[in-house]
Automatic annotation (TrEMBL), chain A:
<dbReference type="InterPro" id="IPR052188">
    <property type="entry name" value="Ni-pincer_cofactor_biosynth"/>
</dbReference>
<protein>
    <recommendedName>
        <fullName>tRNA(Ile)-lysidine synthase TilS/MesJ</fullName>
    </recommendedName>
</protein>
<dbReference type="InterPro" id="IPR014729">
    <property type="entry name" value="Rossmann-like_a/b/a_fold"/>
</dbReference>
UniProtKB/TrEMBL annotation, chain B:
<dbReference type="Pfam" id="PF00550">
    <property type="entry name" value="PP-binding"/>
</dbReference>
<protein>
    <submittedName>
        <fullName>Acyl carrier protein</fullName>
    </submittedName>
</protein>
<dbReference type="InterPro" id="IPR036736">
    <property type="entry name" value="ACP-like_sf"/>
</dbReference>
<dbReference type="InterPro" id="IPR009081">
    <property type="entry name" value="PP-bd_ACP"/>
</dbReference>
<feature type="domain" description="Carrier">
    <location>
        <begin position="2"/>
        <end position="80"/>
    </location>
</feature>
Length: 336, 84
């Protein structure tokens, strides 16, 4: 059967698990998609503001912010502090051993501009190379749906960031963790965690690490048991404000450059901060035949924040060969 | 019960958490079967809350309630009963 592209987003019938309905011409995600109405968005925005006002000033920090130094997180930090200047924020940048120097400079600069504390989280290059090498060589360690969300390498990296940010929020008694996920990347703008859910998700991630051959006995990647066991019932909420604000890549970049953020010096259409991303996408395509950004781009197109043509163009851009080769060399892996 | 169970299976299949021909037992662990992870669970919670107009209390976000078809079905029935 010939390849059919969804008439609304950019997913197509060649992607494993994607089916296009003959009558509607839509993929299964577009068929059931219900965007947040303006009233719902306003409701979430009001709820978010009330939570920030109620929860601030009670811990060492109000917010633990996931800052990669890329465009989305830099913009979200800037807007967060512009809209809610009373928030005391610690921005955490995960140095995954592949983050670009430019992204580190940008992250520090954004913290200066927004008057937030900057914290660099890392575990040492060799440990991280070994971890991502194992993720690249693994197969089916993550559930099927996770393969649409991101590559095995990115799922591992994001998992580590989430675990460590939850840990830091508990240690610093910060009631909120903020991520800069776009509308296609997250199910809900406000997520209420619970003690049992935090424990459960820790164990689930530990299982996933074991499946890719990592024994995290030093708890470098998961929330430390001591922290989980001694956490009281005050559990952080996860907030995704970017999926409630208007999202336009061009305008975001324009705004950032205007305030002093340096445009990326790496040639990757899907990441402005990570030099491992092209290899991660290549590896995912080789293993599963799935473009690791297809679902993400489809979500932005579906929500109307990007045209279908722009989405298809972005999806079909060739991956950077120099970036792929460079990352493969560091991971001691061969590229076919 | 049967309708709720079928709805959950339909959701998991239609949203590509699993293949249309995947079979699993009522009390089989969805996480151990590689069908769902913590982010997938959040998607499922979102679906349940919207579809059945129920709020799932934070203390009920446990493997007993959410890691099997049986647990999820029982949870929805319980919360729907409490609401009505």
């Amino acid at each position: 059967m010939s390849r059919i592209v969804c008439e609304k987003c950019i997913l197509d019938s060649d992607v494993p698990g994607i089916s296009i309905d003959e009558d509607s011409g839509l993929c299964q995600f577009c068929q059931t998609y219900e965007p947040l109405s303006p009233q719902e968005k306003d409701g979430y925005l009001a709820q978010m503001e009330a939570l920030f006002r109620e929860g601030s000033g009670k811990g060492e920090y109000d917010v633990i912010f996931a800052l990669s130094g890329g465009k989305d997180s830099s913009y979200t930090l800037y807007e967060l502090k512009r809209k809610y200047p009373f928030l005391n924020v610690m921005a955490v940048q995960f140095d995954n051993a592949f983050i670009s120097d430019n992204a580190i400079e940008n992250a520090k600069k954004m913290c200066e501009i927004t008057e937030c504390d900057y914290f660099r989280l890392t575990m040492g290059d060799e440990v991280l190379y070994d971890t991502f090498r194992r993720a690249a060589l693994s197969c089916d360690a993550f559930p099927r749906f996770a393969k649409y969300r991101a590559s095995d390498i990115c799922n591992t990296c994001i998992g580590i960031i989430k675990q460590k940010l939850v840990e830091m929020s508990i240690v610093h008694r910060a009631p909120f963790i903020v991520f800069a996920f776009t509308p296609g990347q997250t199910p809900n703008p406000i997520i209420n965690l619970s003690t049992s859910f935090v424990k459960w998700s820790r164990d689930l991630f530990d299982d996933q690490l074991q499946k890719i051959g990592i024994d995290d006995r030093d708890e470098n990647f998961v929330i430390k048991k001591e922290v989980v066991e001694n956490m009281d019932n005050v559990v952080p909420k996860i907030i995704h404000p970017l999926c409630l604000w208007d999202y336009n890549e061009e305008r975001i970049l324009e705004k950032l450059v205007d305030i002093g953020w340096n445009p990326p010096d790496i040639n990757d259409s899907n990441s402005t901060n990570c030099t491992l991303n092209s290899f991660a996408c290549y590896n995912h395509l080789q293993k599963y035949g799935i473009h690791a950004y297809a679902f993400d781009i489809a979500g932005i197109v579906r929500s109307g924040d990007m045209t279908r043509e722009e989405g298809l163009k972005k999806l079909n851009q060739e991956l950077s060969q120099p970036l792929i080769l460079n990352a493969a060399k560091k991971l001691n892996l061969k590229v076919e | 019960m049967e309708q709720i169970r079928n709805d959950i299976i339909y959701f998991l299949k239609s949203q590509s958490f699993m293949d249309s021909d995947t079979q699993f037992a009522e009390n089989e662990s969805l996480t151990k079967a590689g069908i769902i992870d913590s982010i997938g669970l959040l998607e499922l919670l979102d679906h349940i809350s919207e579809r059945y107009s129920i709020e799932i209390p934070e203390d009920m976000l446990t493997p007993d309630n959410l890691d099997s078809l049986q647990g999820i079905t029982n949870l929805i029935v319980k919360l729907k009963t409490e609401r009505s």
